[in-house]
Amino acid sequence: MTDTKPSVGIIMGSQSDWTTMREASEILCELEVPHESRIISAHRRPDRLAEYVGSARDNSLRVLIAGAGGAAALPGMVAALTTLPVFGVPIQTKALGGMDSLLSIVQMPRGVPVGTLAIGGAGATNAALLAVAVLALDDSKVLEALKNWRMRRNAALPEEPNNSP
Fold first, then answer.
1. Tell me: the pLDDT tens digits for 122-165?
2. Residue 71 carries which DSSP code?
3. Distance CA 65, CA 90 (A)
4. Which of 5, 9, 44, 119 is surrounded by the most beta carbons within 10 Å?
């Protein structure tokens, strides 16, 4: 990334979550949106969680994307500690395929919203695109990047299948 301060924070519970959360980072890189990625476990490093989220707004962050598997407490704890938009990405787990993560993130109590995405890479990608859409509300450069990204994606869709006669 450039010297520009990050506007999106990607956080996850452990190193193993990076395989999924990297997809959010790749989208943000492609759209040239400054961001940062951190490992912040709600269970093992609540001190790191409180410090990071508590200083997020002062550190120029405008949206937080939190990925977590299993009990998936991270997105909810983040949302409890900030008024910034929080998008939660359930990480696919071995035990229950990510359904445990999805249900943990989506069942937030009233008043503690987490925008919950799909399990795995699709969720990470869409969380990044939602973060970009939020930033595009008042940043014309980001809006143009998002529009161009969508146009390229749409233009790449073939009209006929590869094996057509």
1. 999 999 999 999 999 999 999 999 999 999 999 999 988 888 66
2. T
3. 11
4. 9
* Alpha-carbon span 156 to 153, nearest angstrom: 5
Q: What predicted TM-score, i.e. pTM, was given to this entire model?
A: 0.94
Measured CA distances, 113 to 79, 109, 140, 150, 154 (Å): 6, 8, 27, 27, 31
3-state secondary structure of 35: strand
Q: Rounded to whole angstroms, how far apart are CA atoms 102 and 115? A: 11
Contacts of 155 (CB under 8 A, 6+ apart): none
Instruction: Give residue 46's Cα distance to chain centre.
Output: 20
What mean pLDDT is predicted for residues 70-95? 95
Compute the CA torsion angle 84, 58, 38, 44 (nearest 10 deg). Answer: -80
